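Thread: Newbie trying to understand structure tokens

Hi all, I'm a second-year student working on a class project, and my supervisor (Dr. K.) asked me to get a predicted structure for one chain before our next meeting. I've only ever worked with sequences, so writing a 3D structure as a token string is new to me. If someone could post the tokens and maybe explain what I'm looking at, I'd be very grateful. Here's the chain:
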Amino acid sequence: MGLRHLVLCPGSRSGPLAVAAGGMARANRLRLSTAIDERSAAFLALGLSSATGCATAVVTTSGTAVANLLPAAVEADRSSQPLLLLTADRPDRLKDCGANQTVNQEAFLAPVCRWVGHGPREGLHLFSTEALESFVEQAWLQAHHPAGPVHLNLPLEEPLHASEEEQGVIWKGWAPRSPNSSVIKPIAMQMVGEVADGPLDQALAELDPLRPGVVVAGPWRGLAHDLFAFQQSLREWQALSGWPVFADPLSGVPADQPGLILAWELMLAADVGLDKQLQVLRLGPIPASRSLEAWLISQGEGQLLITEGESRCLDPLGLSIQRSNGLANWWQRHRHAWICADSHSQQEAQSLLKGWQAIDCRAQDWLDQQLPLQGAVTEPALARWLSRLLPAELPIMLAASSPVRDWLSYADVAPFSRRCFSFRGASGIDGTLSMAMGLAMALGPTVLVSGDLALLHDSNGWLLAHPQRPPLVVVLIDNGGGGIFQQLPLKIAPSEAFEQLFAMPQVVDPLALAAAHGIPHRQLACLEDLPEALDWSFAQAGPVLLRVCTHRGEDSSMRQQLREDLAKHLQVISHNGCIDL
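---
Reply by user tm_fold:
Sure, no problem. This is what the structure looks like when written as tokens:
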């Protein structure tokens, strides 16, 4: 069907699946990775799937092993990424009778899976060849169209283990069939809510590219091989409309996208030059910005939301008409009607874009002055400089707390010269390190930016460093606890109560933990150390850890001060006529 990578966890009931995977790996028909922690294994697979756009399989034994797959299944569901979860189970005769390691695992993952397939309850050996092929074809299709997790629960009857002679006969006669390209490739589907009439149906008549508007591109939730068509369609839409583009670093929008506004999140917070009523084209989920949400609410209803095959509602604000067949399909359906239509003056849209670009340019210059590459490490400065210092196109994963928000606010164009990943489906910290390992295994050298709690929460991910040796550079921001909670509008006295209830600092030394796993590591003292430390990191074989220590209280105050000072700066130059709005 096209499966190329499998992650295997240890177990007895899953023995037949392990032997099959091992045989296929020896025949170079499958890339096999191993992991002792099922939660970590599932996130490793999710990283591989996210990087390639093709489902990776995870094999586990029965019992609580299956329950550990749930966090990754939740993220795969919400971020719309393909994932195959193959779990061995006891046959029906051992269910509900007190047999060891026998639970109702067939129900554990059902709420978040695209499909749950059950093998014959008396044992997988009762499948006919035709039934088995139909079973896996259904699983593969359900995992990719629309993309998400699929659970195959496979009861296995004893005897579980073939002899060496029997295995030799099996592998000698095994000949894989050619992959079915019509199954592997994406299938154009008529999604729920898509309007087929046209060329300009009533729902789209309100979106006029010849009048002023704005594009808001949220985190990418499509498959990797669909991204180029998305980028090209956005480029053509912007060329026609002249609209500015507010893009999340996770959106997949490239650095050379015309109309790209970099400091839009800070500009919205500053409320400078953005008081006009505009059309809004939203692509995917909303970026994590309260300022953006408030601005979208001010624009009212009638916004158009286009998702990449996601028919579930992605509009918590309730302001949009949602189309679910992807930007490329939507654009191809309507582009000729717009391009061939009688065009009238776009001076207003062009003037608006030039005004925002002028504001953006001033904001970028001001941020460079406020966040130089010198002195103590602060999280806003690290977000601004790290991607600038990395090689172009090197992928980055951002932990789903402060790092992903700081890059949205303080990074410049550099993040858009590479793919940026994060957990923006369910936005948890489960499996942060393990998913980054999977990305590095699929994409080559990769950087993970993570806080201390997120990294510690998934410290078993370090076990994946051997023997796979993925080329991953982990930049650890150690601020002594949950720094994201320091940014809450929350006052608790005494201060020790905040530490106990929210920050939860831990006593584990991350450098000692890395050393225990055989991971090369370095401590950075200041921002000036960063260029040389990165050069050292990429010269190592396998994962490395770079630790920077920050002060979460001071950084929280710094973020607030930066926003206030930038707002004043932009308002002054606007009032003095330095920016033509």
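A couple of things are worth pointing out once you decode it. Confidence is low (pLDDT under 50) at residues 181-200. The two ends are 56 Å apart (CA to CA). Feel free to ask follow-ups in this thread.
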